[in-house]
Write a structure and sequence with these properties.
With 289 residues, this protein is mainly beta. Helix content is 0%, strand content 51%. The protein has strands at 5-6, 15-21, 26-31, 36-41, 46-51, 56-62, 66-71, 74-78, 86-90, 97-104, 110-116, 128-134, 137-145, 148-153, 159-164, 169-174, 185-189, 196-202, 208-213, 217-221, 228-233, 238-245, 251-257, 267-271. The protein starts with a strand and ends in an 18-residue tail after the last strand.
Length: 289
């Protein structure tokens, strides 16, 4: 394994929600508090961005060859050069909340979480939700989360993994196609000394890679046993999200956020011996296309 390197010169206040686009050879990610969506092209070492109306929690591909995002209270669509914004859906939630992590499932539906902007707010604990959005409509809402994060689907599409950072647990739901989801169970628990689990992705071997907020690292876990298989040190304390990219999907991109001293917020990457998976697209079929 190669060493972790900084991928882009600019830093974010709260970098998050990274996603690789194979078509353009670009990594898209967000600065939640900076209200920006970034596009990074590693071949040219080029970084561009657009500004959003309100905090932006995540980005995801759309089946019509665009980029989607959760910004303000809207699900929006952009062209891949970050122009041509239009609204796909509007969500109605209290003003003290904002979007957080979100991804599309194998059936082309967006799962996106909300959380309190200020964790000292009296409604923060258990005040977040996880929405399922398809065709511009809200299909369902699961409540009771504090910081909904880290979404991933098993290789055979029979399990859905999800994190609520405040609980330090990776939970799992059993799936029977797109419309049947069984009760939530704990797949495994992250000890406090290992950090708080944040963004998450799955590799081609079915293992989960998790950003460890407050611990300066990303780690790989076997979801069936909870055993930690690998650990990558990152030169920033607040590690927020991970995503596989590059032509062979063997580059792990890592977003970070500034800490209380003002350090952090850079985008990092590291080459791995294992490949990741391409993200599913909003409005796509079972192949995410």
């Amino acid at each position: 394994m190669e060493r972790v390197i900084q991928a882009a010169a600019e830093t974010c206040g709260l970098g998050e929600g990274c996603m690789w686009d194979q078509e353009t050879g670009s990594l898209y990610f967000v600065d939640i508090t900076g209200c920006r969506i970034y596009r990074y092209r590693p071949e040219e070492n080029r970084l561009s961005f657009c500004e959003t109306r309100g905090p932006v929690g995540c980005v995801f591909p759309t089946a019509d060859h665009g980029i989607g995002a959760g910004a303000g209270r809207s699900i929006i669509r952009l062209e891949k050069d970050l122009t041509g914004e239009r609204t796909l859906a509007e969500l109605d939630f209290p003003a003290y909340l904002r979007f957080n992590d979100g991804k599309c499932d194998p059936w082309g539906r967006l799962w996106i979480g909300t959380m309190a902007k200020d964790q000292s707010h009296p409604g923060a604990l258990g005040g977040g939700s996880l929405y399922c959005v398809s065709g511009g409509r809200i299909l369902g809402v699961k409540g009771g989360f504090t910081i909904p994060n880290g979404l991933a689907w098993s290789l055979d599409r029979s399990r859905f993994y999800h994190i609520d950072t405040q609980t330090r647990k990776v939970d799992v739901y059993e799936l029977d196609g797109p419309d049947r989801m069984s009760g939530r169970q704990t797949s495994f628990h992250i000890p406090e000394e290992d950090g708080a689990p944040d963004g998450m992705c799955m590799d081609s071997q079915g293992n989960l890679w998790i950003a460890m907020w407050g611990a300066g690292k990303a780690a790989c876990y076997d979801p069936s046993t909870g055993r930690r298989l690998e650990e990558i040190e990152v030169p920033a304390v607040n590690v927020s999200c991970v995503a596989f990219g590059g032509e062979d999907l063997k580059t792990l991109y890592i977003t970070t956020a500034r800490d209380q001293r003002g350090d952090g917020g850079a985008l990092y990457c590291v080459r791995l011996p294992v490949a990741g998976l391409a993200p599913y697209a909003y409005g796509g079929n079972e192949d995410g296309k």
